[in-house]
Amino acid sequence: MEAVAPQSPAELTVTSPEQMRDLGRRLAKLLRAGDLVLLSGELGAGKTTLTRGLGEGLGVRGAVTSPTFVIARVHPSLGDGPPLVHVDAYRLSGGLDEMEDLDLDVSLPESVVVVEWGEGKVEELTEDRLHVVIHRAVGDTTDEVRHVTVQGVGARWAGAELGSLSA
Ligand SMILES: Nc1ncnc2c1ncn2[C@@H]1O[C@H](COP(=O)(O)OP(=O)(O)O)[C@@H](O)[C@H]1O
Ligand SMILES: [Mg+2]
């Protein structure tokens, strides 16, 4: 297999939860069935907030919330778009392979799959993915400023125009 050169990431600064949600809506425009979006960042970084906007952008049913008691939640499309599968990987001990065993009522290749992942669990993944990393300023617990990096990994994202995200 030919190596795909890494895409240069889009770097964004987000200053409120509303802006984070808006970023999710813009991100949704880039997505299609079969895509995997990986969200990294500490607890409270804004991963679920971003996913909420993504769900709105995709036009799916049901409010996106933290999947606290479930590993994954399926949000079917209200139109003819792909469903959103929202996964909390804090509850996935065996990595993404485990998702195949979840018995979701949708097929992952026909869905947009968004995984909230903790920091440092990403290395084991090799597939095409859009990797979003959210951090807040170190030591800052009240500020609403978040730094967001969006990087496309793999052939799916080679040549993708991520610059539109900063609009
Ligand atoms: N710029 C921001 N982006 C996202 N969330 C923010 C921002 N500033 C403050 N917040 C707050 O931080 C919290 C993020 O929570 P959540 O999205 O559930 O994070 P995570 O899923 O990463 O644990 C929310 O209470 C949200 O209102
Ligand atoms: Mg969350």
Automatic annotation (TrEMBL):
Native source species: Streptomyces prasinosporus
Q: Which UniProt keywords apply?
A: ATP-binding, Cytoplasm, Magnesium, Metal-binding, Nucleotide-binding, tRNA processing
The entry assigns this protein to a family as follows: Belongs to the TsaE family.
Q: Pfam families annotated for this entry? A: TsaE
Q: Where primarily located?
A: cytoplasm
Coiled-coil segments, which residues?
none
- Answer yes or no on keyword Nucleotide-binding: yes
Its localization reads: Cytoplasm
The protein in question is named tRNA threonylcarbamoyladenosine biosynthesis protein TsaE
The record's listing under InterPro entries reads: P-loop_NTPase (IPR027417), T6A_TsaE (IPR003442)
PANTHER family (alphabetical): TRNA THREONYLCARBAMOYLADENOSINE BIOSYNTHESIS PROTEIN TSAE (PTHR33540)
User: Any keyword Ligase?
Assistant: no
Biological role stated in the UniProt entry: Required for the formation of a threonylcarbamoyl group on adenosine at position 37 (t(6)A37) in tRNAs that read codons beginning with adenine. Is involved in the transfer of the threonylcarbamoyl moiety of threonylcarbamoyl-AMP (TC-AMP) to the N6 group of A37, together with TsaD and TsaB. TsaE seems to play an indirect role in the t(6)A biosynthesis pathway, possibly in regulating the core enzymatic function of TsaD.
